[in-house]
Specification:
This protein is of the alpha+beta class. The chain has helices at residues 13-26, 64-67, 78-108, 114-118, 130-144, and strands at residues 29-37, 40-47, 50-57. The protein is built from five helices and three strands, in the order αβββαααα. The longest helix has 31 residues, at 78-108. The model has no long low-confidence stretch (mean pLDDT 90).
């Protein structure tokens, strides 16, 4: 992949988060929550009785991409490092706003069902998302090669009935 969406955005994280909340309300959300720590932000909502949770990883403030210049790798001032970090945070929030809006519009247009589009992020009764529950099994299936064919019976002769 080459470019990142909204890499130069001036839209603050607060404005993006508010936009996400407005978008969710417009598409029928009946609950919304948000929280954060230094490593991630968590956003959850309820639509049609389904609980959905997105975890947005936050960049590491101490990462070299923020503390040093991209060209020569020179140490940035504290103010410049903070500005670069905040830009990365703004970019991530814009990308999340885009993803959620696109998913909801695809559901609204009848392209996909809500469950299909948000499956990985649906919260199960255990409190984990579907992705957390089945992700390790998917990775193991690919690691071991025990993955079913994409097109069942492709390349095998059809079973013929009695003549």
């Amino acid at each position: 992949m080459t470019g990142r969406y909204a890499v130069d955005t001036s839209v603050t994280a607060d404005r993006s988060r508010a936009e996400i909340e407005r978008t969710l309300t417009r598409y029928g959300a009946r609950g919304f929550m948000y929280g954060w720590d230094e490593s991630q932000a968590v956003l959850g909502f309820v639509v049609g009785g389904r609980q959905v949770r997105f975890v947005l990883p936050m960049p590491d403030r101490q990462a070299k991409e923020f503390t040093h210049t991209p060209g020569k790798g020179l140490l940035r001032s504290g103010q410049a490092a903070e500005a670069a970090y905040e830009q990365a945070v703004r970019q991530r929030w814009r990308a999340l706003a885009l993803v959620i809006k696109a998913k909801l519009e695809a559901v609204e247009a009848g392209i996909v069902t809500f469950d299909d589009e948000f499956l990985a992020h649906l919260v199960l009764p255990t409190g984990e998302t579907v992705a957390q529950a089945i992700g390790p099994n998917v990775a193991e299936a690919y690691r071991t090669g025990a993955v079913p064919q994409m097109l069942p019976n492709y390349g095998t002769p059809a079973i013929e009935g009695p003549r």
